């Protein structure tokens, strides 16, 4: 019911309103109607923000708060100030992405120091050594890493590669070999041929395969994939994993929100199907003439099954 330029104005106001409620300390002590007002306005704001993420309508840097200095925010977080924590919880988009990355790296460094995972003059961190056969990289990595404790996974992992003849490869791992191992593992688990993940038509974005259950241990494999991605993020290793936005929404828990719409996410799975489905709303003739059926076909290992909805 609003024009795009009106949505730009509305979202700008809502963004400022929520920011002020948090930064001026109103939300910290809010009760009753004030708290209800905040959650109501915040909900509307996030609907517009997520819509802009899916299909941009707002100008560049529209969501950023230029009056919020990153240095001030970092200082407040170091002092455990509530308003800074609430800002990250509710509207992290007001902070430039590069500053959020710096903030995250700073948090990781502090946690490593706290857990004793950093080399110092007086102590050395515990190191986990694993041996990986080139020809069975995924299998060996899965068997040796899936049972590691949380702290061991966050710590130093040294990799020794063994070639097809069973001979150790030369070289000492100073994170470079582990980086290679991690990149190769991720490449293998996201290969559609493994049928753990599939790609969407068109832009080829990744999402869990509906037939991944053909692997007897598919749930454990998904958990292993999560650990590998978590390790990559934790160590600042960039990996090329283009997830479909509807899957990311699930990971972020957006589907639990009252504002969530699966139809809004449908284009990221099948844009052609979304286009055809929404065209029905504008169809002037008799819908029965289209011969529509509430069903779908599923291809499982070459066997196509018909499912009625």
Automatic annotation (TrEMBL):
PANTHER family: UBIQUITIN-PROTEIN LIGASE E3B (PTHR45700:SF3), UBIQUITIN-PROTEIN LIGASE E3C (PTHR45700). One of its GO terms (molecular function) is ubiquitin protein ligase activity. It holds the Pfam family HECT. It is an enzyme of class 2 (transferase). The lineage of its organism: Eukaryota, Metazoa, Chordata, Craniata, Vertebrata. It comes from Scopus umbretta. The gene is Ube3b. Keywords: Ligase, Transferase, Ubl conjugation pathway. This is HECT-type E3 ubiquitin transferase. InterPro entries: E3A/B/C-like, HECT_dom, Hect_E3_ubiquitin_ligase. Gene3D superfamilies: Hect, E3 ligase catalytic domains. It catalyses: S-ubiquitinyl-[E2 ubiquitin-conjugating enzyme]-L-cysteine + [acceptor protein]-L-lysine = [E2 ubiquitin-conjugating enzyme]-L-cysteine + N(6)-ubiquitinyl-[acceptor protein]-L-lysine.
